[in-house]
Design brief:
The complex is a heterodimer.
Chain A: H1 17-45, H2 58-83, H3 87-116, E1 119-123, E2 128-133, E3 145-155, E4 167-170, E5 176-177, E6 185-187, E7 193-195, H4 198-225, H5 236-266, E8 272-277, E9 282-286, E10 291-294, E11 298-301, E12 306-313, E13 316-324, H6 332-338, H7 344-347, H8 352-369, H9 380-387, E14 388-390, H10 401-408, E15 415-417, E16 422-427, H11 434-470, H12 472-502
Antiparallel strand pairs in A: 1-2, 1-16, 2-13, 3-8, 3-9, 3-12, 4-5, 4-9, 6-7, 6-8, 10-11, 11-12, 13-14, 13-15
Helix pairs in contact in A: 1-11, 1-12, 2-3, 2-12, 3-11, 4-5, 8-9, 11-12
Chain B: H1 2-9, H2 25-30, H3 35-65, H4 73-80, H5 84-90, H6 98-133, H7 142-161, H8 180-183, H9 195-223, H10 236-267, E1 279-280, E2 284-285, H11 294-328, H12 335-348, H13 364-392, H14 401-420, H15 426-432, H16 436-466, H17 472-498, H18 513-517, E3 519-522, E4 525-528, H19 529-560, H20 619-632
Antiparallel strand pairs in B: 1-2, 3-4
Helix pairs in contact in B: 3-6, 3-7, 3-19, 6-9, 6-10, 6-11, 6-16, 7-9, 9-10, 10-11, 10-12, 11-13, 11-14, 11-16, 12-13, 14-16, 14-17, 16-17, 17-19
Classes of the chains: A alpha+beta, B mainly alpha.
């Protein structure tokens, strides 16, 4: 059996099958990215926070644009070389295209890495700082919560021992480090000594779950014996009889539950078990997203374990490189009075005066520049210039470049922000704001398309020789179809670049 | 030129059917690239999943009609499908819990729409019939076709597999609206791998499979039509499938976007659809950045889901449009206007989506626009159904089982369609939104409408697939049982809905005293609206019983049905009846040439009452054509 028009074009449509296919596929891709671009517009128009713009560095984006355009040219050249039956040129152009793809992804990776290691902290009053948490280690805990536990309550049903990742060992001179192997000895409620590791835990967990299923089966069997009372058809006597039966069975259910509890206690399988560390209190540096909630004397992990003891500190050790006092559009009236006594100045008093001098200069400059704007401070562009300072990148009016460098690398400017003062804390990842969410989603999907396209083109390059010798036109068709996809990927970037880097 | 290339580059496919080598059972029936086997795989999977979705509904109906009572053994085994522990976890004491009801509600809708009706109605029929109808040896991309099926199967396994998760399956309705879907399982210990997350993964795979499948169908129809098969000689069935494939191709990507965004919200903690300051009972103000828009999800969802309605519906119409001319022995009335109506319908279906969202407060201008387009879209639908009705007029109709289902399709779809018209108007929709009226409206379209069309198609093409007819008495029992049960099931829902009965009350409205005391009176019958729940549930049990003859018939006839005596048992005119029965790999024995339109039944002067597309014109017909051409010059 042979499918017609696999290589040569059908006379009336003028297309071979794969070309029909790729155009249709691209139509659906247009709808995919169309949906994303529409969502961007929707999110930006409806944003109730100041939408970040001009925050991405243009240069890497621009280089990437050029790289992709170059690769689009070379993929056409590869196809033309095949049409002219010059295999060597085809290989050369294809390799160039693939190198461009690799370069694009490397630059993208560099941009992403910078964002993942950069953090933003929003205070409860809405003002924002960003920078880097102090790396954890030695005497520093960075953005972790420090908790000293005198006992640990593990949950045999839910826990997966994730909490042990947060355990730290303390050296004699008070420095903390990640233990190489977790081997803390604990005392169980009945007095036996165990080493808490996954082997022990899995065994207990399995036994507990088996016991629990047995209980559930017993209870269900009892429940199903309960008769149902039909208020219309049953007479009073029958109803009373049935009610008695129901009561008897209800008691039986309670009894089964109590007996079960007693039995598992004997077997050291209570649902929760308090373990006491044998060698005295142990210290945890807890990642905040591992916790469910915490207080001065307890901390619960989301996986079900909880610690009892003492909260040492929950402050975030932070090096600031940006202050942003722009308002959320909805909070306009309050903002003007708030920014002068923002929580930022509690931590960075030395910068307050400098900041407002800078702001006044910027507002004045803006006013001279655009006289028509009656209230410059309500203008989005003015706010961006005057209320957001990035130490290393703003002009000398705020801080000279050398000063900024010195400032950012001086340990004494590290601040400690208690978690009670923060509303939101995240790195520049999708969780920071819908802007970064859609930025990562769109550029990430585009990056996946680049990788996918490069894999297909690479496959044509590596395995093309045999087909070239038997049927060069077929290979040319394949490269043409792959090239069409490659152009589409390029075109998407041509739209993404101005949208994210320039607008 | 073609064939020389072909022989060079495809050594392994060399030669013709008469001397192709043995292929293993696994390759022939499991990892097959043959469009007919893939069609059968889709069909079988679709039927199994439809049955599963139906069983979930039976459990829900029990909870509505008999709230707080333990499930009877006959229904409890549905829960045992998902493991012995499932009953004790989700139905303590054998009673349907609220979470279980929500889970089954969400999964019933999802399975029926995305894993039952679309795979059966579109994927199965299009795969089996369309390449045959256009005279092609296979789909344009057979291997891609196989991958689409396996991707679809993976998505189905993921979706059904979510019942075994510690959190259970998704519980936020088949529409999966945010922020409910983002928060309903947030307080569980499963972190982010919940039923909701798995639902999204399954949907992303399902959508990708649909996109690849749709692209394949379009390329097949565009490029693989036989010689002489011009666009206006395409059978209406293939036209409809062609349009559906376009709808899938263009409408599904925005849902894929929405699903990816929800995945981001679930896995990476972003806030695409979560507003600032979102508060939940279990967590208080939830710890995300906020700043997103729940309504954005609804836009993306319904931008797909309205065209999806036509993806569900059109296979029904397409199949009925094949069966009616064949059994009235008359041409399809208004073939061309039906094709143009189809195009209009497809276009309009992209600009009506927000009529599902009147309740979001979109403002009168926007609402008026969508009201206008929604009323507009009833015009092409009515053209389609009217043409089918007129096609019956004056025919000498025979009534084999497929024709029974096809004729019942017309009034049933009519009820579903006409009851939808009032919903186009915001002032009515605000009242009826999310009531049982809506449930009745779209179930009349999908159940006695579309499903009847699909049953008709199964009975109609079964002899071509297996070489055996399905049993007639069992078929008739299946038909009458289903017809009566469906109406008992869905008609009372209109009455309940207009009384304000909400679609998501898991106890059937029992706690709402107002509703439970209200009485209705209908054609002399009186009762409370709560009593109707019991009647409706009887309809559901009846519908379940009515499917038993079908299941027996289906499996028994594969081996034991009456053998067909010709390749064209219904004396039909389209190309699929010109293959050997069942069609071999590669389909046709000779190259197909098409000489005439698809529905030339009872042509005046012809010897037989049908003139198939593959029969050359008789000298008399040619002479008539020539005089006609001369007259127009």
């Amino acid at each position: 059996m042979q499918i017609p028009y696999e290589v040569s074009a059908r006379p009336d449509t003028g297309l071979y099958n794969a070309k029909v296919g790729i155009w249709l596929f691209l139509a659906s891709e247009v709808m995919l990215f169309g949906g994303l671009f529409s969502s961007y517009v929707f999110l930006r128009i409806g944003a109730d926070f100041s939408w970040p713009f001009h925050e991405l560095k243009v240069l890497p984006g621009f280089i990437n644009t050029m790289v992709l355009i170059a690769s689009s040219v070379s993929v056409v050249a590869a196809w033309a070389s095949l049409k002219a039956r010059r295999y060597g040129w085809y290989q050369f152009n294809m390799i160039f295209t693939l190198l461009c793809a690799v370069a694009f992804m490397c630059i993208k990776g560099y941009e992403y890495k910078g964002k993942f290691t950069h953090y933003s902290l929003k205070f409860t009053d809405g003002s924002v700082i960003s920078g880097h948490p102090v790396p954890e280690g030695g005497k520093n805990w960075g953005d972790r919560i420090v908790f000293e536990a005198t006992s640990v309550t593990i949950n045999l049903e839910k826990s997966n021992l994730e909490f042990l990742d947060n355990l730290r060992t303390k050296s004699k001179d008070g420095e903390y480090s990640h233990p190489e192997t977790v081997a803390v000895k604990f005392k169980t409620p009945t007095g036996s000594e165990i080493t808490l590791d996954s082997g022990w835990f899995k065994k207990q967990h399995r036994e507990f779950m088996d016991a629990k299923s047995d209980l559930r089966r017993t209870i269900t069997a009892l429940e199903l014996q309960k008769p149902s009372i039909d208020k219309d058809d049953d007479d009073a006597a029958t109803q009373a009889l049935k009610q008695a039966e129901i009561d008897r069975l209800t008691k039986a259910v309670t009894k089964a539950g109590d007996e079960w509890l007693a039995a598992v206690k004997d077997k050291e399988l209570p649902p929760t078990m308090v373990l006491t560390p044998v060698d005295g209190p142990i210290t945890f540096f807890v990642k905040e997203n591992h916790t469910m909630n915490y207080g001065k004397e307890q901390l619960s992990f989301r996986e079900g374990t909880s610690l009892q003891g003492k909260l040492v500190t929950d402050a975030i050790q932070f090096n600031v490189d940006l202050i942003d006092l722009r308002p959320a559009p909805a909070k306009m009236d309050q903002w003007k009075s708030l920014h002068a006594d923002s929580l930022v100045w509690r931590h960075l008093p030395e910068l307050k005066e400098r900041f407002f001098a800078y702001r006044d200069a910027k507002v004045k400059e803006f006013h001279e520049h655009r006289k028509k704007v009656a209230e410059p401070e309500l203008d989005e562009d003015c706010q961006r210039d005057a209320y957001r300072v990035e130490f290393a990148n703003n002009d000398e009016k705020f801080m000279s470049h050398d000063d900024a460098h010195a400032y950012l690398h001086d340990e004494k400017h590290t601040i400690n922000v208690p978690r009670s003062e923060k509303r939101f804390y995240s790195n520049f990842s999708p969780s920071l704001s819908p802007y970064y969410a859609i930025y990562f989603l769109m550029t990430g999907l585009h990056g996946l398309h680049v990788v996918g396209g490069a894999i297909v083109l690479g496959w044509f390059l590596l395995t093309g020789r045999k087909m070239y010798l038997s049927n060069p036109e077929h290979l040319a068709n394949r490269v043409e179809v792959g090239g069409l996809f490659w152009h589409f990927v390029d075109l998407v970037w041509i739209f993404l670049f101005p949208l994210y880097y320039l607008m | 030129m073609d064939t020389t290339h072909a022989h060079d580059s495809h050594g392994h496919d060399h030669g013709h059917d008469d001397h192709h080598h043995e292929i293993s059972w696994l390759k022939k029936y499991v990892f097959s690239t043959d469009h007919k086997v893939i069609g059968a795989q889709y069909g079988f999977t679709g039927l199994v999943l439809l049955l599963l979705g139906f069983c979930l509904m039976l459990v829900m109906r029990w909870s509505i009609a008999h709230p707080g009572e333990a499930l009877p053994g006959a229904l409890r085994w549905v829960l045992h499908l998902f493991g012995d522990d499932f009953v004790t976890r989700w139905a303590p004491g054998g009673k349907v819990s609220g979470s279980l009801y929500n889970m089954f509600g969400a999964m019933h809708g999802t399975i029926m729409v995305f894993f039952g009706v679309v795979p059966l109605g579109f994927a199965a029929f299009v795969n089996f019939v369309t390449p045959l109808q256009v005279g092609a040896p296979d789909m344009a991309f057979p291997r891609l076709n196989m991958w689409s099926f396996w991707l679809f199967l993976l998505s189905a396994i993921l979706m059904i597999g979510s019942f075994w998760l510690p959190t259970g399956a998704a519980q936020a309705g088949w529409t999966n609206y945010s922020p409910l879907s983002a928060t309903v399982m947030k307080a569980t210990d499963a972190h982010f791998w919940t039923g909701q997350t798995q639902w999204l993964f399954a949907m992303v795979f399902n959508i990708s499979a649909s996109l690849l499948g749709a692209m394949n169908v379009l390329a097949t129809v565009i490029n693989l039509r036989a010689k002489g098969m011009t666009w206006m000689r395409l059978p209406f069935f293939t036209w409809a499938m062609f349009i559906i494939a376009f709808l899938l191709l263009l409408a599904f990507p925005p849902l894929e976007v929405a699903a990816l965004m929800q995945l981001c919200d679930q896995v990476f903690g972003s806030s695409f659809f979560l507003p600032t300051g979102l508060w939940t009972g279990s967590e208080g103000i939830i710890s995300v950045s906020g700043g997103g828009h729940p309504v954005l999800f609804q836009h993306l969802f319904w931008f797909l889901a309205h065209p999806e309605v036509y993806v569900l519906l059109l296979p029904g119409i397409a199949i009925v449009a094949e069966i009616i001319p064949c059994n009235t022995r008359k041409p399809l009335w208004g073939y061309k206007s039906m094709v143009y109506a189809l195009l209009g319908l497809a276009f309009l279906s992209f600009i009506v989506w927000a009529h599902h969202m009147y309740l979001t407060g979109m403002g009168t201008v926007v609402a008026t626009f969508f009201q206008f387009t929604t009323v507009m879209i009833s015009v092409p639908s009515v053209i389609l159904i009217t043409c089918l009705m007129i096609s019956l007029w004056g025919g000498s109709i025979r009534f084999p089982v497929p024709m029974l289902f096809a004729t019942a399709f017309l009034p049933m779809f009519g009820i579903g369609g006409l009851t939808g018209l009032p919903l186009a108007f915001p002032f009515i929709d605000l009242f009826l939104h999310d009531t049982y009226y809506i449930i009745a409206h779209f179930h009349y379209i999908v159940a006695p409408g579309v499903l009847f069309g699909l049953f008709a198609g199964i009975y109609h093409w079964f002899p071509k697939v297996t070489g055996r007819m399905m049993n007639n008495p069992l078929g008739i029992t299946h038909f009458w049982g289903s017809l009566i049960a469906m109406n008992v099931l869905f008609a009372p829902m209109f009455i309940q809905g207009m009384a304000g009965f909400h679609r998501r009350w898991y106890d059937g409205g029992k706690v709402f005293e107002n509703i439970s005391m209200q009485k209705y009176s209908f054609l002399g019958w009186e009762g409370t609206f709560l009593d109707l729940n019991i009647l409706i549930s009887w309809g559901a049990w009846g519908l379940g019983l009515a499917q038993i003859p079908f299941i027996i018939n289906f499996f028994w006839s594969i081996k034991g049905g009456k053998r067909v005596t010709s390749d064209n048992p219904w004396n039909a005119t389209t190309l699929e009846w010109n293959t050997p029965t069942p069609p071999p790999h590669g389909n046709f024995l000779t190259e197909q040439i098409v000489y005439r339109g698809p529905y030339e039944y009872s042509v005046p002067g012809a010897e037989k009452d049908f003139s198939p597309q593959w029969e050359p014109l008789t000298p008399a017909e040619e002479a008539a054509l020539k005089t006609e051409a001369a007259a127009t010059h």
